[in-house]
UniProtKB/TrEMBL annotation:
The entry's keywords: 2Fe-2S, Apoptosis, Electron transport, FAD, Flavoprotein, Iron, Iron-sulfur, Metal-binding, Mitochondrion, Oxidoreductase, Transport
Location (main, coarse): mitochondrion
Rieske domain: residues covered: 60-155
Name of the molecule in the record: Apoptosis-inducing factor 3
UniProt-listed SUPFAM superfamilies: FAD/NAD(P)-binding domain, FAD/NAD-linked reductases, dimerisation (C-terminal) domain, ISP domain
Subcellular location: Mitochondrion
GO CC annotation: mitochondrion
Gene name tied to this protein: Aifm3
Keyword Mitochondrion: yes
Known role: Induces apoptosis through a caspase dependent pathway. Reduces mitochondrial membrane potential.
CDD domains: Rieske_AIFL_N
Transmembrane spans: none
Amino acid sequence: VEVKIEVVIPEKERSKEEMSPNGKASPLIYKVNGTTRHYHLEEHPIASNPYHNPKDVVEASVCHVKDLENGQMREVDLGCGKALLIKENGEFHAVGHKCPHYGAPLVKGVLSKGRVRCPWHGACFNIGTGDIEDFPGLDSLPRFQVKIEKEKVYIRASKQALQTQRRTKMMAKCISLSNYNLSSTNVLIIGAGAAGLVCAETLRQEGFSDRIVMCTMDRHLPYDRPKLSKSMDSHPEQIALRPKEFFCTYDIEVLTEMQVAAVDVKSKIAVFKDGFKMEYNKLLIATGNMPKTLSCKGKEMENVFNIRTPEDANRVVKLATSKNVVIVGASFLGMEVAAYLAERAHSVSLVELEHVPFKKFFGERVGRALMKMFENNRVKFYMQTEVSELREQEGKLKEVVLKSGKVLRADVCVVGVGAVPATGFLKQSGINIDSKGFIMVNKMMQTNIPGVFAAGDAVTFPLALRNNKKVNVPHWQMAHMHGRIAALNMLAHGTEINTVPYLWTAMFGKSIRYAGHGEGFDDVVIQGDLDELKFVAFYTKSDEVVAVASINYDPIVSKVAEVLAAGRTIRKRDVDAVVFLSFRTGDMSWLTGKGS
């Protein structure tokens, strides 16, 4: 028996691709130097039928049918590219072998119940369709045709798909956009981060063909914000989530450098800071967070930064090179910036109120291990103290004075002391906001106001993993999922959110994976070697594992995420067995079923 893989576009999606109700690209709206301009870019198709050119198709025998057992995956070479061959429940499937997010090898991921989970950042893909089912990332996997002949497995695939290893789902376009009033839209999305963009894309993927407008205070189209502190010298075009042409092709309008000052939910009108008003039918609020600032003397002087934009990050790298840097706050942002600048700056000092970095998130033992790694890379810590004053010389930062009395030389100061939800403009709107400023939503990302949804870092929502406790999860992955759920419920699908939080950070070449929600954990069970930074940590609350973190222990975090996603409970007493069965033997049978 031979297995063949072939890229197949379903008839439904093929008809969508051939349909172009608009006839031409719609205007991409953005501001340049404060002036709104409208541009009609040339339309560039994002996806095409791979069978238009027979020369683009390759077919190859990749293995014998008995070479793979049920539940196994294999990366196979077709000569001009690779595919991921999967056998589950006696059937063979073939999809792209790299995660479209950052290119992780999916063969090292987790296969469970018809989907494969990325070993690096937790994105999930349906093995039958290639569709992305959990995030991060925007694109799906290409799906290839599998045939079995004479007990050999053949794969038939498009050469282009093998090379790109990604597939953008078919989307609708806006009908008769030119007939719309510029001050009226069907869907208004405030915020152009991951939540806002995924919401817009999901609406189009579901066939929504009315007007969609996104607005943002930023000067750029949506970009990969986590890279601002992980890859600080990245330029905006390098970290853009979609090119300009994409927004024109699918009629997603973007208003940049536009700040909403108020929302009138009764009249369904958003009022912008410059006085412009826009009517809407459905509203998504995805404004994210705003960084906290210092309250001490000198906080406004030159060379003191909150990393909020690519320009901020680029400027810090330029000014910090061979200079003295002080970072205030051992937050994820602060620690990532410290790691990035350690080899570039003359000195890096980190000031933190706690006695161990990441203590509340990773626990004291893991925090100390990470602190040691930083110290071994020339980062100097000043713990259990705060900044009392920033001193200048000739208008520029010269010294950072600590409450402990220590004076640090500083040419650049980066502030990473946390953030607050950017929801101040909603205080008089009637939308329910809690005491900390977070927008309260239900499992469908709906606020208390009909037709108004909220998503991303600025919301609290019921987390199924923690018995529907209302939580705030400011993770990149979660913002993607929020945006998708909001879009589906704008279309009245009645879809509830049910995902496992997943995050990652990278410092000095070490990647930390984390899944679950460990807030309030009362114990940490560690397997492996903290000193060698090769370990997995299980965070427990009342004997139940609520989160897991690891370094150099892939794909244990993705495997535990699948256990939690399946509704299973891991008890503290089971941690040894979990590590042995999932990491050492690869046995995934313990994922099946419900309960503990």
